[in-house]
Amino acid sequence: MSETTSTTTKDVKSLSPAEAEAELARLAELLNKANAAYHQADAPEMDDADYDALKRRNAAIESAFPDLKRSDSPSDQVGAAPSETFSKIRHAVRMLSLGNAFDAEDVAEFDRSVRSYLGREDGLTYTAEPKIDGLSLSLRYENGKLIQAATRGDGETGENVTANARTIEDIPENLQGAPEVLEVRGEVYMSHDDFAALNERQEAAGAKRFANPRNAAAGSLRQLDSEITRARPLRFFAYAWGELSAPLAETQYDAIQRLETLGFSTNPLTARCDGTEALLAHYVQIEQKRATLGYDIDGVVYKVNDLALQARLGFRSTTPRWAIAHKFPAELAWTRLEKIEIQVGRTGALSPVARLTPVTVGGVVVSNATLHNEDYIAGRDAKGGRIREGKDIREGDWVQVYRAGDVIPKIADVDLSKRPEEATPYSFPTTCPECGSPAIREEGDAVRRCTGGLICPAQAVEKLKHFVSRAAFDIEGLGAKQVEAFYGDDQLPVKEPADIFTLRQRDAEAFTKLANRDGWGETSAKNLFEAIDEKREIALSRLIFGLGIRHVGEVAAQDLARHYTSWEAMAQALDAARPAALAHRKADEAAEAERAAAAEEGRRAKLAEARAAVAGDVPPEAAEAWADLIGTDGIGPTLALSLSDAFANPDERAAMDRLLPQLTPLPPEARATGSPVAGKTVVFTGTLEKMTRAEAKARAEALGAKVSGSVSAKTDLLVAGPGAGSKAKKAADLGVETIDEDGWLSLIGDA
User: Fold this and answer.
1) How far is it, in rounded angstroms, from Cα 525 to Cα 517?
2) Which of 52, 129, 330, 424 is the most exposed place for a label (fewest CB within 10 A)?
3) For residue 612, what is the enclosing H or E element?
């Protein structure tokens, strides 16, 4: 476990813009890492309750500060990149995740948001079905024959598991009466009885027992040998579809019934519900039956029943607007906290981990728990308020842990009556346990970070692991274990990314060749060198992401690559923008000082004054480069500052300069074409009368346009409805083409 921080932080309503940016950055880092662990490795590092709490906080901050939403926001992420072990299948229709509800108010808000989007006051009919805790699978049939099967992967591209899917009895090979093209989607799972029998066989064979049915199902479906999959008792529930050549039905419920008549297993607890009260009643009914179902579920999924309304509601970046998952509460257990250990992550974060006396929680044996940060251990939140009634956590304590999935749990409470007399308050280290450098906690940050940078072996190794990770360079044969071995190697050390690409040359000069070392041979060494050479040509976005710059996730790297198109252009722009970046930081510090003394209603004015005062000293070309950077779709000031800092750091820049001569960064692929607005930047303003603003934005993005919230010289088109104000004036001043709503609908062919 690494880099986990407390979800019990400052109230969203009291966050300043700078604090909100920092918090969104922290949440993006945690959640993106958790997605990779869960979806790529089938080895989750964060329990469902923690994950859901972090996502809720992220969404709340984005709602309160919409202009600060990050390009790598977890709100825009689905799953994780598919494994290289399997060939890839690109989904004809994306496989998205679901938004979450945790209580009755969340469900009511979901209903309100649906009706608001559709512009209707009357109630709606929904379906409600158990949320199966398994592995998502898409099955493509053509002319009634099963052609291919793919996991969800990152939502756009999944793993080809066709041979394995054919071994599952619940998946028919041939269909009678199906549309010419039919993609059936559902969940692969394992029943409790089958799971217990499988573990008995594993134990009898001297093999490792599976932790839980979900991991067993995921691991079984992703076997390279389909005969192993055949021997595993996998099952499949169908509940959705992707590409269709003809509709299955007019409603969600009837479409599920149609899938059943085609030969698929569908969940018998699926029901039609008129309004939220009926949804909540069915939720209670399913929750009461949960323990006797014989398979794992972790909530209930609600969907708008009318498929025409589903089509109109459409999708956000990663979730449908017409569906939501109402999650069950977490599970609890008590055990002994034996030791608190500190782990150092890629960005230097010191993450405390509790080592527990093994305990079964919800059927899973757990021995580790996240302790988030020093405040959480001390029994306080980021504002100094008490959590757990102020009870701190000490080694030797009897602690309550909870989990809602199959992963490392969280400590929820402490039993002081069982606290050993010799237990002392935990002293959080102020120096890095790996390199001895000072560990600093910056203002407004819940995390203490090692300042050692690349001299810290833990950070250096984690950065290298990140560099070779699947979403970055993904070098076959160079994984985490190999990185650790090369980092400590005397003859062929790999201390930074550039060292990877000089490995073959240095091996030729080494006293003991790699091929002659333990664990290696002529073939494996040759394969590694060839795999490295294959990645000398690399997508610019993968290069940017692979550098491991704080706050720069996969989506941000893609946005930066599309914006600058080349490494040279980006580096030059960041160098030019550096004075403005420093001015921005200075302005934020000045604004924070002003804010402390200013009335709340004057805060934004003070912030603007402080920024204007500092910006006046910035050269025009720096201001222009900075404005261009933060004007990039989704790139906020926090990410931009982090990027600027990395390029201005002499050691980091030198490492980049040593790496780039070894590579040929490839420009990004062009945006989608084929529509009159593809590749254009569009701004909507005023009142739209024939569609909601959300519908307009979704439609524009689906056609390949970029939708911006502000008018600039880079704006191609302004769509102005009644009441258009300053944006229309600015567009006129800049000579930006302006059309009304009817003109927009005519342009995109929807008139």
Assistant:
1) 10
2) 424
3) helix 603-615
The strand pair at 439-440 and 410-414 is best described as unpaired
Q: State the pLDDT at residue 677.
A: 87
Longest dimension (CA), the chain: 79
Q: How far is CA 35 from CA 38, 46, 80, 198, 724, in A?
A: 5, 9, 6, 27, 41
The rounded distance, in Å, linking the Cα atoms of 265 and 263 is 7
For the chain, which domains are there? 88-327 (3.30.470.30), 541-666 (no CATH), 681-747 (3.40.50.10190)
The CA distance from 164 to 172, in Å, is 13
Burial of 225 (0-12, 13-18, 19+ CB in 10 A): exposed
Beta bridge partners of 23: none
| Structure confidence at residue 165 (pLDDT) | 93
* Per-residue model confidence (pLDDT) at position 697: 75
DSSP 365-377: EEEEEE--SHHHH
**CA 320 to chain CA centroid, nearest Å:** 16
| Active-site residue set | 131
d(CA 470, CA 105): 39
- Retrieve residue 724's tokens: 């258009």
Three-state DSSP at 87 gives: coil
Distance of alpha carbon 556 from alpha carbon 73, whole angstroms? 9
Cα separation, 622 vs 574, in Å, equals: 9
Q: Which DSSP letter does residue 670 get?
A: P
The 10 Å CB-count burial string (b at 16+, else e) for 631-663 is bbbbbbbbbbbbbbbbbeeeebeebbeebbeeb
The larger pLDDT score, comparing residue 540 to residue 705, is at 540
CA 610 to chain CA centroid, nearest Å: 34
Q: What is the pTM of this model?
A: 0.53
Decide if 461 contacts 548 (C-beta within 8 A). no
State the Cα–Cα distance between residues 540 and 543, nearest whole angstrom: 5
Q: Phi/psi at 34 (nearest 5 deg)? A: -65, -40
Query: 683 near 711, Cβ under 8 Å?
Result: yes
Residue 274 bridge partners (DSSP) = 125
Give the whole-angstrom CA distance, residue 648 versus residue 251.
56
pLDDT above 70 as % of the chain: 88
Q: How far apart, in whole angstroms, are the C-alpha atoms of residue 557 and residue 548?
A: 10
Q: Position of tokens 């993609």? A: 183
Task: Please state whether beta strands 410-414 and 323-327 pair in parallel, antiparallel, or not at all (unpaired).
Answer: unpaired
Residue carrying the six token digits 């790699």: 514
Please give the span between the terminal C-alpha atoms of the chain, in angstroms, as a whole number: 54
- Which residue in this structure is represented by tokens 């496989």? 95
Q: Which residues contact 74 (CB under 8 A, 6 or more apart)?
A: 27, 28, 31, 32, 35, 54, 55, 58
Edge-to-edge strand list for the sheet holding 145-151: 145-151, 135-142, 181-189, 235-244
The answer for 153, left when phi > 0, alpha when psi is -120 to 50, beta otherwise, is left
Contacts for 737 with CB less than 8 Å, ≥ 6 apart: 716, 717, 718
Q: Can you read off the two tokens belonging to residue 750?
A: 């929807």
- Report pLDDT for 486: 94
Place of tokens 């302004």: 718
Closest CA to 239 of 163, 302, 150: 302
Question: Residue 107 — pLDDT band, cuts 50, 70, 90?
Answer: very high
Angle (CA) 677-555-90 rounded to 5° is 75
Its sign, for the CA torsion 373, 374, 380, 384, is negative
For residue 570, is it left (φ>0), alpha (ψ between -120 and 50) or beta? alpha
Q: Specify the pairing of strand 323-327 against strand 99-101.
A: parallel
711 in the Ramachandran plot: left (φ > 0), alpha (ψ -120 to 50) or beta?
Answer: beta
Distances (CA, A) of 278 to 108, 118, 250, 275, 281: 11, 21, 21, 6, 5
Which is higher by pLDDT, 694 or 507? 507
Residue 368 phi/psi, 5° resolution?
-135, 150
